Amino acid sequence: MSSYLSASWVYPVSAEPLQNGIVAVSDDGTITDVWTAQQGEALNIKGIKFYDGVLVPGLVNTHCHLELSHLAGKIPEHTGLPGFVQQVMQQRQASEVEIEEAMELADRQMYVNGIVATGDISNQIYSKGVKLKSGIYYHTFVEAMGFNPGRAGEIIQKAIETRDGFLPLRATIVPHAPYSVSAELFGEIKKISGSSEESVSIHNQETLDENLFFESKEGHFLKLYEFLGLDIGFFEAKGKTSLQSYLPFLSGEARTLLVHNTFTSEQDVRFAQEQHQRLYWCLCPGANLYIENRLPDVDLLRDAGVTITLGTDSLASNHQLSILAEMKVLQEFKEVPFEELLQWATLNGADFLGVEAQFGSLEKGKKPGINLMKNLQGGLITAETSIERIL
Fold first, then answer.
1. How many CA atoms lie within 13 A of 171 on its CB side?
2. Contact in structure between 145 and 181 (CB atoms under 8 Å)
3. Angle 265-326-122 (CA atoms, 0-180°, nearest 5)?
4. Which domains does the chain have, with CATH numbers?
5. pTM of the full predicted structure?
6. N or C, where is the chain less crowded by C-beta within 10 Å?
């Protein structure tokens, strides 16, 4: 049996918005049809539940760190990335009970905020129990990190154990960031996660110091390695930006998410497009403002026609886990149209995670979740815009 939902506007994402459109939904949440108001009238549909607002698909968060939820409010803003990383390492230790309770609250926050699927970074197995019980679909990205080339084999074996520990949940081994993964470890990751069926992510150009390190072996990362007790005498500057230095190490077949992109240049984008045909570019504006107090060049990415997704990062680096909040920042500071933001927040993210057959758009046969957005004004997100999960 189907129920019928309508609103002032229905945004299928995969098709044009429908004024007073109608969505037919089965008892298990599967969409059985989507009609215009005129089609609904011709079919003489009865019992339609009408909402004052905009119906949209469930949102997709392509970059989160559930494991860091217990650090909410503990790290000051505007530390810069090297300082932030150092504070995370100093403060992330906590009891398993504290970590799990914080993750449960964070998971619930995302669910209430209309998020139906999340790409989550994990270094440990801590989040498995929360994910198994969650109403959110999770794809776990198990980060492998180690800048010492001699430890690549040892590190990849530990990552394999962690990945397999997440079964039956979907999990993939991925590189953490260019400044924390040796060329040898990149090679090991490529062997395991390089197929066309995989989704892979990497933190990219989140701080100016990342580029400085690869271009001339200068900047604050040298202090970070010193803090970590790492001898990086083996490393030689490439004279190129970090993206241009590491991207050739990644598989060109896997769906690959570049996360943050705060200091990505036009030359970097052109290089990336020539090098890799399955790239997705994730924006986490709330975290970028929290850590570096700077946003990526969004107009550059839009003009280049790249595929953009949205992420929240962690509660250690953001004030909330809300894709709507990220959309608000981008509309306020970068004036991105609502329909474009919605594509980034839904179908693009689902496509990256490889779950577009279920999530990302209001289409017949999908079970994408349905959200109601209220208080949009003239097609714009405002400070008063809210989201409510309908299905």
1. 24
2. yes
3. 80
4. 3-56+379-389 (no CATH), 59-359 (3.20.20.140)
5. 0.97
6. N
